[in-house]
Design a protein that fits this description.
- The protein is an alpha/beta fold and 398 residues long.
- 34% of the residues lie in helices and 18% in strands.
- The strands form 3 sheets. Strands 6, 7, 8, 9, 10, 11, 12, 13 and 14 form a 9-stranded parallel sheet that branches. The chain has a 3-stranded antiparallel sheet with strand order 1-2-3, with no helix packed on it.
- The longest helix is centred in the first third of the chain and has 43 residues.
- The chain starts with 12 loop residues before the first helix and ends in a 13-residue tail after the last strand.
Amino acid sequence: MGTDLHAPLGQNRPAARRRNRRFSLAIVFASLAVVGILGLSLYAMRGDEALRQVATNVPPASKPEQVQPPAKPGQNPAQQQAGMPRSDPNSGANVERTLTDDGSVVTKYTPRSRDGSGPVMIGTQRIGQDPRVAAQPNDALLEDSPHGRLPIVGPGGQRPMDQYARPWSGARGTRIAIVVGGLGLSQTGTQRAIRDLPPSVTLAFAVSGNSLQRWMQEARRAGHEILIQVPFEPFDYPANDPGPGTLLTKMSAKDNLGRLHQAMGEITNYTGVMNYLGGRYLSDAAALEPVLRDISKRGLLFLDDGTSAQSKTAVVAKAIEAPHAFGDLTLDGQLQKDAILKKLDELERVAGRKGTAIGIASAFDESIDAIRQWSEEVSQRGIEIVGVSSLASESVGP
């Protein structure tokens, strides 16, 4: 207020000057803010104008423009079609930009066809099936026939034995495949095998069984690799009759293939064919050759259960380079849990010597109990149980 006590109230000049200074600073800041806002608005208007200028070169939404890669060395850039900026020539993509009704520009990238000079992808074929769709067949691996839908090799060379295989770790350790057959013959036995056996165990469905499509789907959803089990003529046929549709040595190759295809059409999603009995048929190379050839041509493996010492499977399969495998031991010749466990221990010793081994069993309660117990124990000893397809050979015998 100053030192003059006689000055009228409100006439303190120094205080008035301080108020004027604060007022001047406010005006300066407000002016700067206005200038900034105007500058941003002008910049935005210029950006919109630039976008509109680019958009005028974009064709209507109904006819999107295929943008080609930049000019190659020696090519006149003016010869290229005018339009939106091109994609990076190393990106491997085509770019489509479309002007929508609201003025937005939509950009779409799609793979560019290679001329052979680009990078090459090696080993990209998928082994195994996505578990979410494991119960559904791959239509590209099926063909229609009078006997139903039969497996074939896909257009890209993919085989059913690869598509439907159970993936494994790829480790170089000891591997064992356990194949449990006879599924479909007993409802309770089939249900228990699917429910109680580890997913790593391969299941074989007897083509004379019931509700095979239903059981196949449940087995695949549970993670099992599956086979179909086809009856072949035994030495003591017809006293020992494997059932309807048995392949016989005295029948023509055409008739036997018809019976084979009838069996194949029962279900889908299997990696191969396994014999049921068949000592006589497997010992006849002339009868066996067209059957193994057809199985191989369809991208499937053949599993010989190893019970016939006179089997010609190795000779024929090697000659035609058919994927095949052999059972090393029948696990449940004695239908007692303790005896089966001893056989499983023996199978483990075989695998220790050879690196791999295949055990064959049937869907009996004793077999299921023993295999389940042994599987839990053997995993702690560094042994991997795998699907039988991972042990199939395409060039040599057992």
